[in-house]
Design a protein that fits this description.
It is a single chain. The chain is of the alpha/beta class and 210 residues long. The protein has helices spanning 50-57, 95-106, 113-119, 135-148, 165-180; strands at 11-21, 24-34, 39-43, 65-71, 80-83, 153-157, 184-188, 201-205. The chain has a 5-stranded parallel beta sheet, sandwiched between helices. Strand 6 (153-157), helix 5 and strand 7 form a beta-alpha-beta unit. Helix 2 (95-106) packs parallel to helix 4 (135-148). It is globular and about 45 Å long. The termini are far apart.
Length: 210
């Protein structure tokens, strides 16, 4: 993945969106635009639909009402990259094999596997069975999936979960570089996420009552 690569400008728009599970609406009447170079933090108590909203945006769940659309870019391009709160790691495959699997699934359009592992601090563990990774290392491996497949919209569910202070800095660095390249990010998180330019951070609070 070239540091000089820039995405075509994309805007993710929600218009009266409602989403939920099992017939139960968790969040509704969401009208919002996420623009290139910005990171939106989803906030709200447990059960207000942060994960459900991300899964809906990713196409895993069907909206219950309203619409969502991506404006701009190539119609044939897959613009969305979903990194859920579960790491989706196969324990009997090596660290490198896990990442190569995801590169094949999502398209090997970004960094080479070894380079991505180096970037997230796992370069020396490529031959290790992934089942031996700590919780923080497993999260780093999940984040490496964002690097091997180049997509402009990141949907991140608790990206800093199980990470130490150095891991938090890694997330900040990855998001900042992604925004610099014209991408955008939406992150559901209970942790504080900061960026060098705070004007790039926006907040969408779910479950808020007027």
């Amino acid at each position: 993945m070239s540091q000089q690569h820039r995405f075509q400008p994309l805007t993710l728009r929600l218009d009266g969106l409602a989403c939920g599970r099992g017939g139960m609406v968790l969040c509704s009447d969401l009208t919002y635009s996420a623009t290139p170079g910005s990171c939106t933090l989803l906030r709200g108590p447990n059960g207000t639909g942060k994960t459900t909203l991300l899964m809906t945006l990713a196409g895993v769940l069907t909206p219950m009402a309203g619409t969502m659309a991506v404006d701009g870019g190539d119609e044939d391009e897959k613009p969305l990259h979903y990194c859920g709160h579960r790491n989706a790691i196969k324990p009997r495959l090596s660290v490198s094999e896990n990442l190569a699997f995801w590169a094949t699934i999502n398209g090997p359009t970004g960094m080479a596997v070894q380079n991505a592992l180096d970037e997230v601090g796992l370069g020396h563990l490529g031959d290790l069975d992934a089942g031996y990774l700590s919780a923080g290392q497993s999260r780093r491996l999940a984040l490496a999936r964002l690097l091997v497949s180049f997509r402009p919209i990141w949907l991140l569910d608790e990206p800093t979960a199980a990470l130490d202070a150095e891991g938090h800095d890694l997330v900040t660095r990855l998001i900042t570089r992604h925004l610099d390249q014209g991408g955008l990010a939406i992150a559901a998180t209970h942790d504080a996420i900061t960026l060098p330019d705070p004007s790039r951070l926006h907040t969408l609070v779910l479950g808020a009552r007027s």
